[in-house]
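ARCHIVE CARD
CATEGORY: sequence design from structure
SOURCE FIELD: tokenized fold
FIELD CONTENT:
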């Protein structure tokens, strides 16, 4: 049914070999839930290999946007181009196979299985069954790498359910990494984490971005300041600022107003010296 989606203009950026290529191009995206317009005319790009933050107050439409990119929600209008392929209209599993990985706000791991078993299952996901059975002996390279980069190697044999909150989030990211995504979408990966866990998550995200584009949905402005390459700001379902630098976002009076207007409630602000900054000291 993607016949009513906008025909994308592809190619301009690719003609300049030095320009980072927008691997994700979102155009005219809109969705309404029973008359409530959750997203309206959303346009933005994410370039290959960047850590792109999608920020905005609660209810801005961030998770809805991630749901659309990953095929969980179908938009009413618009287009999501990933590596020149239209994602709108594809099923979730097809989008995963195209190289798009996604974490949820609550970590989704198999609690009763060990850390390594969780990674092993995730890594098997793309293999034909007969290869899967043949590979049962030893730790696969992609599993070993995920154990290493997430810092979970010492916990490989521990049940995932026994991990600390932060470690479960890293395990979920590790599981996604074994599937070798080219675009990783992380929905509020540092929610509920200690300052130290936040820093380690940021470092993990930067590591992942060496060969993957990462779209981080975040509510935590301090985390955004420390780890973002580019930022898109959503507010009430509309783009307030697209593909901006951290400095541009911090200097933008409208963005300031949106956050400061809510700072009393949620202790979040884009400006320096705001409540979130104390977390940096730990
Ligand atoms: N399936 C749904 N049905 C009805 N309303 C929804 C649905 N999903 C999200 N919404 C509404 O859309 C708005 C944006 O939600 P969401 O994308 O979760 O925001 P964010 O992730 O930025 O906090 C909210 O007002 C939310 O209540
Ligand atoms: Mg959300």
């Amino acid at each position: 049914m993607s016949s009513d989606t906008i025909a994308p203009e592809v190619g301009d950026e690719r003609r300049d070999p030095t320009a980072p290529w927008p691997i994700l191009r979102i155009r005219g995206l809109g969705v309404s839930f029973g008359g409530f317009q959750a997203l309206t005319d959303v346009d933005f790009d994410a370039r290959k290999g960047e850590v792109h933050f999608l920020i905005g107050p609660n209810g801005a439409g961030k998770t809805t946007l991630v749901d659309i990119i990953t095929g969980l929600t179908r938009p009413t209008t618009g287009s999501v181009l990933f590596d020149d392929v239209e994602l709108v209209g594809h099923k979730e599993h097809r989008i995963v196979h195209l190289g798009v990985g996604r974490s949820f706000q609550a970590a989704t791991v198999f609690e009763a299985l060990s850390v390594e078993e969780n990674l092993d299952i995730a890594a098997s996901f793309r293999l034909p069954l007969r290869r899967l059975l043949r590979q049962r002996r030893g730790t696969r390279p992609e599993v070993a790498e995920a154990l290493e980069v997430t810092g979970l190697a010492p916990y490989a044999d521990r049940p995932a359910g026994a991990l600390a909150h932060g470690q479960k989030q890293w395990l979920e990211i590790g599981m996604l990494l074994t599937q070798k995504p080219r675009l990783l979408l992380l929905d509020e990966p540092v929610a509920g984490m200690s300052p130290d866990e936040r820093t380690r998550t940021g470092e993990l995200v930067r590591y992942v971005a060496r060969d993957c584009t990462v779209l981080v949905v975040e509510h935590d402005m301090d985390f955004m300041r420390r780890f973002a390459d580019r930022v898109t700001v959503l507010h009430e379902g509309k783009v307030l600022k697209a593909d901006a630098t951290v400095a541009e976002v911090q200097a933008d009076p409208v963005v300031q107003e949106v956050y400061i207007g809510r700072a009393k409630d949620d202790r979040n602000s884009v400006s320096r010296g705001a409540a979130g900054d104390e977390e940096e000291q730990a």
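CARD ANNOTATION: The longest helix spans residues 195-208. The pocket of adenosine-5'-diphosphate (ligand 1) is lined by residues 33, 36, 38, 56, 58-64 (CB under 6 Å).
SHELF: design records, drawer C
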